[in-house]
Amino acid sequence: MADDHPHREYTCRVCGFHYESPTWDGGTGSQDICLCCGTQFGYADTTLDGVWEVRAKWAAAGHPWSHPEYRPPDWEPGAQFVQVPDRWADADVLAHKLSAAPLPTMRTSADPEAERAEVLDRFCRDGRLAYFPATRHEWMIVLEHIASGFEPGVMYRRLEVDEVLKAWHGKPALLLGVLIGNGFIENDNQHYWRT
Ligand SMILES: [Zn+2]
């Protein structure tokens, strides 16, 4: 865990994407390439000036993903910027960090059921989506949980879907897009149903 190894970093300094293995360890970058922003850990992200410059270029290009297949539907860079370590933040990142609560500490478990409970506990608060998950794996756990609020076999109208999703997040359309994009909900012109 990051707390046990203060010299290890688990997020991309440029974009804040979180990894299970260190991006930086004891002052050395892993040389892996960020799935999100495409930064190679240990080169342009070695200095603060470098991190800022790469981030600015990435922003100017419209925040493209180097591996678009990992990009969650309706992903927003701002939600991920809150995970950028403070020392690598610039004004834009700080604005996002200040407007959001800190992301809870990452933990992993070999027990899928315990992991599922832990992920839901980390990202959901009182039946609301409190934080946007950082990884696709976490997204899948959270989305499955949200989708379980719809009865199988029931055809819902859009207003009914929005009622359920509004309880989870202030932007139900965004959340619905994520659910449909990941195959948890299907729809035709009139109805929505759980897959
Ligand atoms: Zn990155």
Can you walk me through this structure?
The protein is mainly alpha-helical and 195 residues long. The protein has two domains: 2-98, no CATH class; 112-194, no CATH class. It contains seven helices and seven strands, in the order E-E-E-H-H-H-H-E-E-H-H-H-E-E. It has helices at residues 48-60, 77-81, 91-98, 112-123, 136-147, 158-166, 172-181, and strands spanning 8-9, 24-25, 28-29, 124-125, 128-129, 185-187, 192-194. Strands 1-2-3 form a three-stranded antiparallel β-sheet, with no helix packed on it. A two-stranded antiparallel ribbon has the order 4-5. A hairpin with a 2-residue loop joins strand 4 (124-125) and strand 5. Helix 4 (112-123) packs across helix 5 and helix 6 crosses helix 7. The longest helix has 13 residues, at 48-60. It is elongated, with a radius of gyration of 18 Å. The site of zinc ion (ZN) has 8 residues, from loops.
Give short descriptive properties of this protein.
single chain, 195 residues, mainly alpha, two-stranded antiparallel sheet, 7 helices, elongated, binds zinc ion
